[in-house]
Write a structure and sequence with these properties.
This protein has about 325 residues and is an alpha/beta fold. It has a domain of about 180 residues: Vaccinia Virus protein VP39 (Rossmann fold). The chain contains seven helices and seven strands. Helix 2 packs across helix 3. The protein is rod-shaped and about 190 Å long.
């Protein structure tokens, strides 16, 4: 089953009966069965939306795999059944729906149905077989829900990938046309509900124009917005280039300033070293000078003592000498 972004990429099994669809988990890291919370939630959502859109009474799911959509529709009160070419899928179905799914081909559909779902099936069939399947489905129901990827060419088992317009043309040849009022994007962007309709050319053109014109107008608006965004991006890139050039220039100047700062720092460190060395020398000189001052003071003090003693000795000697001279003078008289 194809699904939009964020949903499983493929869960159909038509033309793939070796069970690899189950081992691959269809792009999701959970087993592909009803016991998986992911798949149970997904198929319940799909069943609810299908019931809301089409309100079917009896549904046949062509390429039903393990019957997950059948089981989800049954829980919604819809009489749902399924067919698949893969015996492996039938054998691994949940017991609740084992009796409702069987081996069968899209080219040979029995009975009539209120709705047929054909999800991720036609692209696995040869072109001629796909056309036979469309004939068979159109004969068995007036409403057919089809989803077939238009772009997955990497899978070698998808031998009949076509654009939605090609499928729509094939159904139109059989009197089935797109229900343009039904949006199935919850299932896949390319999912379509085809319905048998006896419409004249005027009504058909009106229906498709009513469907396509708003989308074309929206596409044009978005294209204009995208072009405007590209222009703004180009302007910003141009401004960014100028900013980059300016930034490169500023970076060059910054590198030059950093280089000059490194040189100035080296000179400053050298001067600081010389200053510290000079200060150490000055401190040493001051200490030596202080030592010499102390010695000078000590020597001055000693000299002072000697001088004082000398003066005292000289005065005493002079006194004695004068006294003796007085005595001699007295004798001569």
């Amino acid at each position: 089953m194809s699904a939009p972004s964020g949903q499983p990429t493929s869960v159909g099994t038509e033309a793939r009966d070796d069970g690899t669809y189950r081992r691959s988990h269809c792009g999701v890291e959970q087993p592909y069965d009803w016991g998986s919370p992911y798949w149970r939630t997904f198929f319940t959502m799909v069943a609810e939306r299908i019931r809301a859109v089409t309100n079917p009474s009896a549904v046949l799911d062509v390429g039903c795999a393990g019957g997950l959509l059948v089981q989800a529709l049954c829980e919604q009160g819809v009489a749902a059944y399924g067919i698949d070419t893969s015996q492996h899928a039938i054998d691994t179905a949940h017991p609740d729906v084992a009796s409702r799914i069987s081996i069968g081909s899209a080219e040979e559909i029995a009975g009539t149905w209120d709705l047929i779902t054909c999800i991720d099936v036609l692209e696995y069939m040869a072109p001629s077989s796909a056309e036979q399947a469309i004939d068979s489905m159109c004969a068995a129901s007036d409403r057919i829900l089809v989803s077939s990827t238009p772009s997955d060419f990497a899978d070698p088992t998808r031998v009949n990938v076509r654009q939605p317009a090609a499928w729509a043309a094939s159904f139109a040849e059989r009197g089935f046309f797109r229900r343009t009022d039904v949006d199935l994007s919850f299932l896949a962007p390319w999912a379509v509900l085809f319905e048998r309709a006896d419409v004249n050319m005027r009504d058909l053109v009106y229906r498709y124009e009513q469907y396509a014109s708003p989308m074309r107008a929206e596409a044009l608006r978005k294209r204009d917005a995208l072009l405007d965004a590209h222009r703004k991006i180009s302007e910003l890139e141009g401004a960014g280039s100028q900013s980059a050039a300016r930034s490169s220039e500023l970076q060059s100047r910054l590198n030059d300033l950093e280089s000059r700062l490194d040189e100035a720092t080296a000179v400053n460190l050298e001067l600081r070293h010389k200053l510290l060395t000079s200060r150490d020398h000055a401190i040493g000189a001051e200490a030596e000078a202080a030592q010499w001052r102390r010695r000078h003071e000590q020597d001055t003090a000693v000299l002072g003592h000697f001088y004082t003693a000398y003066r005292a000795a000289t005065w005493l000697l002079g006194k004695r000498t004068v006294h003796r001279l007085y005595k001699l003078l007295g004798r001569h008289r």
